Amino acid sequence: MDEVLVGTVLASTLRVATPLLLCALAGLLSERAGVIDIGLEGKMLLAAFAAAAAGAAWGSTALALAMAMGVTVLMSGLHGLACVSHRGDQVVSGVAINLIAAGLTVVLGIAWFGQGGQTPPVGDQVRLSALWPGASAALGPLFGEGLLGHNLLVYLALLLVPAVWWLLYRTRFGLRLRAVGEKAQMVDAAGVSVPRLRYAALTLNGLLCALAGSYLVLAQNASFVPQMTAGRGFMALAAMIFGKWHPVGAFWACLLFGFLDAVAIRLQGVALPGIGTVPVPAIQALPYLLTVVLLAGFIGRARAPAELGRPYVKEH
Question: Is 300 a domain residue?
């Protein structure tokens, strides 16, 4: 296969997989603590809007990221208030976050910018550029463009995979976090606050969702567009389940989704032997079709944390 094609597909795979990976790690931390997070999609959408609005208004990457993090941590806190403190239905709360995000971003976009829910383009000084812009010319398409032609958030997402693994499996905090998702009563009996650990997991969840949503505006598109997440939160949820609630497994699943998306883009208009030209909508549906297949085929066989979705009631 041509080296240029391999390098291009590899670069596209990593770029597409980055927001999925960040979102999947966010969901993993939350669900390892026993809190279902269907609201990944909504939090990512709110983060994208906040980053775009702040970046367009103030022209600062740091402020754009800070606003996105503030919004998503707030939404994670509301999710915790409903599900952890008041023992509400976790799925209903997550769906509510998605509905709020879908409506609120459009309403605020129209009210603030008057562009049909969109935001003005973010300036080049705000957007994230490649760390090594001349890598492709110096090292070739495979290493230069495929591996080294990315921005900071792509490499941060890759580094977060071993970081989250280390946090969960090599630290006291991670041990307690996993224990809360398996046997919350034992954690409480040991004198550790179950709600505090779940709120901590939701806070980390919000921070990672902020990075995922900000990436869509600061690295991919130049402005916010309504519903621009396009189901990525649900794809990340599927990747997390397919990866059996493990950071490395989620990483490979996100790469698979990214690869399918990258290949789908390059198959548009290409005639396949014995099939002919594949319709563009059919090609674009491939990643979402895989999401449905994975959820249908693996959600029953993958072992979820034992306390997932169960509100903790302290025994007296």
Answer: no
